[in-house]
Amino acid sequence: MFQQPDDFKNESEALFELINELSDDQLYRQTQFKNWTINDIITHLHMWNWAADLSLNDESALLEFIGQVKSKIPQIGMRKFETHWINGLAGQALVSRWREYYTEMAARWVDADPRIRLKWAGPDMSVLSSITARLMETWAHGQAVYDQLGVKRVDTDRIHNIAVLGVNTFKWTFLNRNWTVPDHVPCVVLAAPSGERWSWNESNLDNRISGSATEFCQVVTQTRNIADTQLKVSGPVAERWMANAQCFAGTPESPPVAGTRTAST
Which end is more exposed in the chain, N or C (fewer Cβ atoms within 10 Å of the end residue's Cβ)? Predict the structure, then answer.
C-alpha cells in the first residue's frame, strides 16, 4: 500500500464538496481556463481518470483508446472529443458518476505496486507517477473552479506530491521547448500549508525560489503567472524556469497572462 491513491481521492473529495450543491445551470458557468465550464472540467477529469485506470487494469483497451485520441483530437480538438466520449452525461449526474469512479479507482490503486510501469499516451509511467499525475490534474483544474466560485482553497500537505512533481520536471520544461538543460536544478525552499519547511537542491545558491508551496504548485501547473505570486526568484535559470514551468506532459504550453487567472469576487 502507498499514500498517493488516498491523496488523489481526498483532493477529488475536496473538489466534490465544493460543487456538490451547485445547480446544473451553475455547473455550466465558464471558468478562466480556456472558457471551459465547470462541467467541461469534470468531464475532462473523469475521462482521464478512466484512461489512467485502464492503464493499470486493461492495457490493450488503454492502447486502443489512446489510438482514438491520437487520430481524432487533431481533427476535432480535445473538448469535442471529450464531449462525444461522455455521451450526454452532464450536470450533477456527471458529478455523481465522477465521484463514484474516483472512489472505486483509489481503492483499486492503493494495493498496486507503485514501481510497476504503465503504458500511456506519452512515455510509460510508474504507478506512482500515474496516480500522482491524476492528483495534480485534479488540483490544477480544480483551481479554475475555486476561482470561478470566488472560494479561497485551503490546501493540505498532500500538495507535497505536486511540489515534488514540479521539481522533478525541471528538465522537462527545458527539453520540451528544445532548450539546453541547465547543469543544476535551482534551490527550492517552500513553506508547506502546515508550516513545515520543504527544500530541494539547497547547495545551488546562485539560483533560488522560495515562498509558499501553494504558489509554487500554482506556477508549475500553470494556474497562475509567476508575476501574480509572492514567490521570491533569483538567478537567471530560476527566472527562466518559473516563467515557463510545466509539470504536465504534452506540447509546450504558456502560463496564463499575468492578471488573467484570479479568484472571482
Answer: C
